[in-house]
Amino acid sequence: MSVTLDIRLKRANKVYHEGEVVAGVILLVCKEALQHHGISLNMEGLVNLQLSSKSVGVFEAFYNSVKPIQLISSNVEVAKAGKVPAGKTEIPFEFPLNTKGNKVLYETYHGVFVNIQYTLRCDMKRSLLAKDLSRNCEFIVHCQPQKAKVVPTAVNFTITPDTLQNTREKTSLPKFLIRGHLDATNCIISQPLTGEVVVENSDVPIKSIELQLVRVETCGCAEGYARDATEIQNIQIAEGDVCHGLSIPIYMVFPRLFTCPTLETTNFKVEFEVNIVIVLHDDHLITENFPLKLCRV
């Protein structure tokens, strides 16, 4: 006997804020009447912290503190044991998005070592011979916009062989001069990162210019911190040996779910950086790094 169980939210974009009500229906479709031992719905918000393999060993003491942090949890019995009639059955539900105590609802974020996720889970218990049914549905939480105005401050940069760090032999470096600016490093998450870069001159032909968005995740406790930087996305903004003196626009949209407003708590931190990477023809990499502060307004 085939039966399908689904959770449908009223909001198509599935985005909610603290204090709002998550509403929708549980949809049951079956060919004939169905006996069950109760239907329950659970809402949960968790922060999952994971350690990178390079940190394990140094931080065994960590294992105690990297338990998932529960932000919100509530459970409701939708239907008592009984029968579901044949055809399509819709059971409406509502959950208020309120935290208990002094907990804060952080914004949904899918990272590598830090994951902030909000899910609804519906369970339908059935008799011994029939398999229990279960369905998960993720919804997205956005933090409340900040009241203060964000004043963008442009950041100018100049890259020459003299400004580089982490180079072994400065004497063997080819000569180049690259200028440019970012329109802001305190960015509004719903607006793109913009700016421009100009190659004034370069002795060696340029192969490519790229824009790399990086997440910097720090998990930790009193015993120590593990800080890991990983790439979110890489956009090529110029291909080949570009014209000298030509301004190349920088434009990057912050991807949904993989970025969130810059977050700092006692157990973990989520920060973002952008790298402007110039690849020379001999595959030398020149990288200029800019820390970003993301916020929602």
What does this structure look like?
The protein is mainly beta and 297 residues long. The protein contains no helices and 21 strands. Strands 2, 5, 6, 9, 10 and 11 form a 6-stranded mixed sheet that branches. Strands 14, 16, 17, 19, 20 and 21 form a 6-stranded mixed sheet that branches. A hairpin with a 3-residue loop joins strand 9 (109-110) and strand 10.
Give a topology summary.
Elements: E1 3-9, E2 15-16, E3 21-30, E4 34-36, E5 39-49, E6 69-79, E7 82-84, E8 87-96, E9 109-110, E10 114-124, E11 133-141, E12 155-159, E13 176-182, E14 186-188, E15 193-202, E16 206-221, E17 224-239, E18 247-252, E19 263-264, E20 268-280, E21 285-295
Summarize the structure.
With 297 residues, this protein is an all-beta fold. It has strands at residues 3-9, 15-16, 21-30, 34-36, 39-49, 69-79, 82-84, 87-96, 109-110, 114-124, 133-141, 155-159, 176-182, 186-188, 193-202, 206-221, 224-239, 247-252, 263-264, 268-280, 285-295.
Shape: elongated
* Rg measurement, Å: 25 Å
* Strand percentage: over 45%
Which structural class do the helices and strands define?
A: mainly beta
Task: Give, in order, the helices and strands.
Answer: EEEEEEEEEEEEEEEEEEEEE
Low-pLDDT regions: none
Number of strands: 21
Helical fraction equals under 10%
From the N-terminal CA to the C-terminal CA, the straight-line distance is: 50 Å
**Could you report the average pLDDT, rounded to the nearest whole number?**
89
Number of helices: 0
| Sheet with the most strands, sense and barrel status | 6 strands, mixed
